[in-house]
Design brief:
five-stranded antiparallel β-sheet, DNA primase/polymerase bifunctional N-terminal domain-containing protein, globular, 14% strand, 12 strands, alpha+beta
Length: 287
Protein backbone atom coordinates (compact mmCIF):
# COMPACT_ATOMS: atom_id res chain seq x y z
CA UNK A 1 0.00 0.00 0.00
CA UNK A 2 2.82 2.37 0.88
CA UNK A 3 4.51 1.60 -2.44
CA UNK A 4 1.29 2.40 -4.35
CA UNK A 5 0.85 5.69 -2.50
CA UNK A 6 4.50 6.53 -3.10
CA UNK A 7 4.16 5.89 -6.84
CA UNK A 8 1.05 8.06 -6.99
CA UNK A 9 2.83 10.92 -5.26
CA UNK A 10 5.76 10.65 -7.65
CA UNK A 11 3.42 10.65 -10.64
CA UNK A 12 1.61 13.75 -9.35
CA UNK A 13 4.94 15.49 -8.79
CA UNK A 14 6.10 14.67 -12.33
CA UNK A 15 2.86 15.96 -13.87
CA UNK A 16 3.15 19.17 -11.86
CA UNK A 17 6.80 19.64 -12.89
CA UNK A 18 5.91 19.12 -16.55
CA UNK A 19 3.10 21.70 -16.38
CA UNK A 20 5.44 24.11 -14.58
CA UNK A 21 7.94 23.97 -17.46
CA UNK A 22 5.31 24.90 -20.02
CA UNK A 23 3.94 27.68 -17.80
CA UNK A 24 7.44 29.04 -17.24
CA UNK A 25 8.31 28.90 -20.96
CA UNK A 26 5.09 30.78 -21.83
CA UNK A 27 5.85 33.44 -19.21
CA UNK A 28 9.37 33.95 -20.52
CA UNK A 29 8.26 34.13 -24.15
CA UNK A 30 4.93 35.95 -24.00
CA UNK A 31 5.06 38.16 -20.91
CA UNK A 32 8.78 38.93 -20.89
CA UNK A 33 9.46 38.77 -24.66
CA UNK A 34 12.41 36.40 -24.18
CA UNK A 35 12.88 34.02 -27.16
CA UNK A 36 13.00 30.41 -25.98
CA UNK A 37 13.10 26.89 -27.39
CA UNK A 38 13.26 23.37 -25.93
CA UNK A 39 16.68 21.92 -25.15
CA UNK A 40 17.76 18.43 -26.13
CA UNK A 41 17.02 16.93 -22.71
CA UNK A 42 17.96 13.58 -21.18
CA UNK A 43 17.04 9.96 -21.75
CA UNK A 44 17.75 6.55 -20.24
CA UNK A 45 21.04 4.92 -21.37
CA UNK A 46 19.25 1.85 -22.76
CA UNK A 47 17.06 4.01 -24.98
CA UNK A 48 20.09 6.05 -26.10
CA UNK A 49 21.95 2.86 -27.02
CA UNK A 50 19.00 1.57 -29.04
CA UNK A 51 18.62 4.92 -30.81
CA UNK A 52 22.33 5.04 -31.66
CA UNK A 53 22.23 1.50 -33.10
CA UNK A 54 19.20 2.43 -35.20
CA UNK A 55 20.92 5.62 -36.32
CA UNK A 56 24.02 3.68 -37.31
CA UNK A 57 21.87 1.32 -39.38
CA UNK A 58 20.15 4.19 -41.14
CA UNK A 59 23.50 5.82 -41.86
CA UNK A 60 24.83 2.61 -43.43
CA UNK A 61 21.75 2.35 -45.63
CA UNK A 62 21.39 5.99 -46.62
CA UNK A 63 24.92 7.38 -46.40
CA UNK A 64 25.48 10.91 -45.12
CA UNK A 65 21.79 11.76 -45.36
CA UNK A 66 21.11 9.73 -42.19
CA UNK A 67 23.70 11.68 -40.24
CA UNK A 68 22.33 14.92 -41.64
CA UNK A 69 18.90 14.11 -40.21
CA UNK A 70 20.46 13.63 -36.78
CA UNK A 71 21.94 17.10 -36.98
CA UNK A 72 19.05 18.81 -38.76
CA UNK A 73 18.99 22.47 -37.84
CA UNK A 74 22.50 22.50 -36.39
CA UNK A 75 22.77 23.22 -32.68
CA UNK A 76 25.51 25.45 -31.34
CA UNK A 77 27.51 24.48 -28.23
CA UNK A 78 28.85 26.83 -25.75
CA UNK A 79 29.94 24.34 -24.50
CA UNK A 80 33.96 25.19 0.32
CA UNK A 81 30.33 24.71 0.57
CA UNK A 82 28.67 27.89 -0.67
CA UNK A 83 24.94 27.40 -0.55
CA UNK A 84 22.69 29.17 -3.05
CA UNK A 85 21.37 32.54 -2.00
CA UNK A 86 17.68 32.41 -1.15
CA UNK A 87 15.84 34.78 -3.44
CA UNK A 88 12.31 33.52 -3.90
CA UNK A 89 9.65 33.99 -1.26
CA UNK A 90 7.03 31.80 -2.90
CA UNK A 91 4.09 32.89 -5.01
CA UNK A 92 4.48 32.80 -8.75
CA UNK A 93 8.14 31.76 -8.63
CA UNK A 94 7.63 29.19 -5.86
CA UNK A 95 8.42 25.51 -5.71
CA UNK A 96 6.82 24.68 -9.06
CA UNK A 97 9.39 26.89 -10.81
CA UNK A 98 12.17 24.94 -9.11
CA UNK A 99 10.75 21.60 -10.20
CA UNK A 100 9.91 20.89 -6.55
CA UNK A 101 13.12 22.18 -4.95
CA UNK A 102 12.38 24.61 -2.11
CA UNK A 103 15.96 25.47 -1.25
CA UNK A 104 16.11 28.41 -3.64
CA UNK A 105 18.96 26.94 -5.68
CA UNK A 106 20.11 23.99 -7.72
CA UNK A 107 20.04 20.35 -6.67
CA UNK A 108 21.57 17.32 -8.31
CA UNK A 109 19.09 15.24 -10.29
CA UNK A 110 19.12 13.28 -13.52
CA UNK A 111 21.78 10.78 -12.40
CA UNK A 112 21.90 7.69 -14.58
CA UNK A 113 20.56 9.53 -17.63
CA UNK A 114 22.49 10.62 -20.69
CA UNK A 115 22.13 13.37 -23.27
CA UNK A 116 19.50 12.72 -25.93
CA UNK A 117 21.82 14.03 -28.65
CA UNK A 118 23.81 11.53 -30.76
CA UNK A 119 27.16 12.49 -29.19
CA UNK A 120 28.04 9.76 -26.62
CA UNK A 121 30.70 12.01 -25.08
CA UNK A 122 28.54 15.13 -24.76
CA UNK A 123 30.10 17.38 -22.09
CA UNK A 124 26.87 19.29 -21.41
CA UNK A 125 24.28 16.47 -21.31
CA UNK A 126 20.75 17.71 -21.84
CA UNK A 127 21.87 21.33 -21.60
CA UNK A 128 21.98 22.54 -25.18
CA UNK A 129 19.75 23.02 -28.24
CA UNK A 130 19.68 20.28 -30.84
CA UNK A 131 16.47 19.86 -32.81
CA UNK A 132 15.15 22.50 -33.24
CA UNK A 133 18.34 24.51 -33.50
CA UNK A 134 18.99 27.78 -31.71
CA UNK A 135 17.70 29.92 -34.58
CA UNK A 136 14.21 28.51 -33.96
CA UNK A 137 13.91 30.39 -30.62
CA UNK A 138 10.65 32.33 -30.56
CA UNK A 139 8.25 34.35 -28.44
CA UNK A 140 5.18 32.93 -30.22
CA UNK A 141 2.83 31.46 -27.61
CA UNK A 142 1.32 28.82 -29.89
CA UNK A 143 4.74 27.50 -30.88
CA UNK A 144 5.96 27.45 -27.29
CA UNK A 145 2.88 25.59 -26.07
CA UNK A 146 3.15 23.10 -28.93
CA UNK A 147 6.80 22.37 -28.13
CA UNK A 148 6.21 21.70 -24.44
CA UNK A 149 3.00 19.79 -25.07
CA UNK A 150 4.98 17.38 -27.23
CA UNK A 151 8.03 17.38 -24.93
CA UNK A 152 6.92 18.38 -21.43
CA UNK A 153 10.25 17.35 -19.85
CA UNK A 154 12.35 19.46 -22.20
CA UNK A 155 14.69 22.04 -20.63
CA UNK A 156 13.98 25.71 -21.35
CA UNK A 157 16.69 27.35 -23.46
CA UNK A 158 16.93 31.15 -23.69
CA UNK A 159 18.53 32.51 -26.86
CA UNK A 160 20.64 35.33 -25.45
CA UNK A 161 21.36 38.69 -27.06
CA UNK A 162 19.34 40.90 -29.38
CA UNK A 163 16.28 42.03 -27.43
CA UNK A 164 16.74 39.17 -24.92
CA UNK A 165 18.95 39.27 -21.83
CA UNK A 166 22.63 38.47 -21.99
CA UNK A 167 24.44 36.79 -19.10
CA UNK A 168 27.81 36.30 -17.47
CA UNK A 169 28.39 32.90 -15.86
CA UNK A 170 31.07 31.51 -13.59
CA UNK A 171 31.60 28.40 -11.45
CA UNK A 172 29.16 28.03 -8.56
CA UNK A 173 31.48 28.67 -5.60
CA UNK A 174 32.94 31.98 -6.87
CA UNK A 175 29.43 32.79 -8.12
CA UNK A 176 28.06 32.74 -4.57
CA UNK A 177 31.05 34.79 -3.42
CA UNK A 178 30.47 37.35 -6.19
CA UNK A 179 26.80 37.77 -5.20
CA UNK A 180 27.79 38.52 -1.61
CA UNK A 181 30.33 41.09 -2.83
CA UNK A 182 27.82 42.78 -5.13
CA UNK A 183 25.24 42.90 -2.34
CA UNK A 184 27.82 44.45 -0.01
CA UNK A 185 28.53 47.14 -2.63
CA UNK A 186 24.81 47.86 -2.99
CA UNK A 187 24.69 46.82 -6.65
CA UNK A 188 21.14 46.17 -7.81
CA UNK A 189 20.82 42.78 -9.48
CA UNK A 190 18.24 41.07 -11.62
CA UNK A 191 17.61 37.31 -11.75
CA UNK A 192 20.53 34.93 -11.17
CA UNK A 193 20.35 31.37 -12.55
CA UNK A 194 22.01 28.54 -10.61
CA UNK A 195 23.05 25.03 -11.59
CA UNK A 196 25.12 22.70 -9.37
CA UNK A 197 28.25 23.71 -11.32
CA UNK A 198 27.70 27.27 -12.59
CA UNK A 199 25.82 30.46 -11.71
CA UNK A 200 24.78 33.03 -14.32
CA UNK A 201 23.93 36.69 -13.67
CA UNK A 202 21.47 38.00 -16.23
CA UNK A 203 22.40 41.42 -17.60
CA UNK A 204 20.98 43.90 -20.10
CA UNK A 205 21.70 43.11 -23.76
CA UNK A 206 25.14 44.06 -25.05
CA UNK A 207 26.76 43.72 -28.47
CA UNK A 208 30.15 42.21 -29.29
CA UNK A 209 31.79 45.60 -29.81
CA UNK A 210 30.76 46.77 -26.35
CA UNK A 211 31.89 43.49 -24.80
CA UNK A 212 35.23 43.68 -26.60
CA UNK A 213 35.89 47.18 -25.27
CA UNK A 214 34.96 46.06 -21.75
CA UNK A 215 37.26 43.03 -21.81
CA UNK A 216 40.10 45.09 -23.30
CA UNK A 217 39.83 47.48 -20.34
CA UNK A 218 39.66 44.65 -17.76
CA UNK A 219 42.88 42.98 -16.69
CA UNK A 220 43.24 39.27 -16.03
CA UNK A 221 39.82 37.97 -17.09
CA UNK A 222 39.81 34.28 -16.02
CA UNK A 223 39.04 31.62 -18.60
CA UNK A 224 36.31 30.20 -16.34
CA UNK A 225 34.21 33.34 -16.90
CA UNK A 226 31.77 32.86 -19.77
CA UNK A 227 29.83 35.55 -21.63
CA UNK A 228 26.45 34.63 -23.13
CA UNK A 229 25.68 37.22 -25.77
CA UNK A 230 24.35 37.37 -29.31
CA UNK A 231 24.24 33.85 -30.77
CA UNK A 232 24.57 32.22 -27.34
CA UNK A 233 22.14 30.53 -25.00
CA UNK A 234 21.41 29.84 -21.36
CA UNK A 235 19.16 27.34 -19.59
CA UNK A 236 16.34 28.74 -17.45
CA UNK A 237 14.46 27.22 -14.49
CA UNK A 238 12.86 24.83 -13.99
CA UNK A 239 15.05 22.66 -16.21
CA UNK A 240 16.93 19.44 -15.49
CA UNK A 241 20.26 18.52 -17.08
CA UNK A 242 22.91 15.85 -16.62
CA UNK A 243 24.62 17.92 -13.92
CA UNK A 244 21.39 18.54 -11.99
CA UNK A 245 18.50 20.91 -11.63
CA UNK A 246 18.45 24.52 -12.82
CA UNK A 247 17.01 26.94 -10.27
CA UNK A 248 17.17 30.55 -9.15
CA UNK A 249 19.96 31.79 -6.90
CA UNK A 250 18.17 35.13 -7.09
CA UNK A 251 14.59 34.77 -8.31
CA UNK A 252 12.56 37.38 -10.21
CA UNK A 253 10.14 39.27 -8.00
CA UNK A 254 6.83 37.44 -7.69
CA UNK A 255 4.18 38.87 -10.01
CA UNK A 256 6.69 41.20 -11.69
CA UNK A 257 6.58 42.27 -15.29
CA UNK A 258 9.69 41.80 -17.43
CA UNK A 259 12.57 41.73 -14.92
CA UNK A 260 14.94 44.67 -14.61
CA UNK A 261 18.54 43.84 -15.57
CA UNK A 262 21.84 45.56 -14.67
CA UNK A 263 24.42 46.61 -17.25
CA UNK A 264 27.30 44.19 -17.68
CA UNK A 265 29.76 46.92 -16.64
CA UNK A 266 28.14 47.06 -13.18
CA UNK A 267 28.93 43.43 -12.35
CA UNK A 268 31.94 42.30 -14.36
CA UNK A 269 34.65 43.54 -11.96
CA UNK A 270 33.17 41.62 -9.02
CA UNK A 271 32.79 38.48 -11.15
CA UNK A 272 36.36 38.72 -12.40
CA UNK A 273 37.68 39.19 -8.86
CA UNK A 274 35.65 36.29 -7.45
CA UNK A 275 36.79 34.00 -10.27
CA UNK A 276 40.41 35.11 -10.04
CA UNK A 277 40.60 34.32 -6.32
CA UNK A 278 38.94 30.91 -6.73
CA UNK A 279 41.07 27.73 -6.41
CA UNK A 280 43.22 27.43 -9.51
CA UNK A 281 43.01 31.15 -10.22
CA UNK A 282 39.75 30.79 -12.10
CA UNK A 283 41.36 28.89 -14.97
CA UNK A 284 39.27 25.75 -14.53
CA UNK A 285 36.16 25.73 -16.69
CA UNK A 286 33.26 23.99 -14.99
CA UNK A 287 30.36 23.12 -17.26
Amino acid sequence: MREILGRRRRLRFRRKARTARQDAAVTFAVEWDWPVLPGVGLEEPARAGSRMRQGAGRTERTGSGGAARWFGGGAGRSAGDDRPVRGDRGGRFGAEWFGGDRSGGATRTGEGQVCACPDPGCVVPGAHPFDPGLLAATTDERMVRWWWTRRPDAPIVLATGGRAPCAVSLPAVPGARALRALDAMGVRLGPVVATPTRWAILVAPYDLERLGELLYATDGVPSSLRFHGEGGYLLLPPSTTGTGQVGWARAPLAGSARPWLPDVEAVVDALVEASRTAPGGGSRLAY
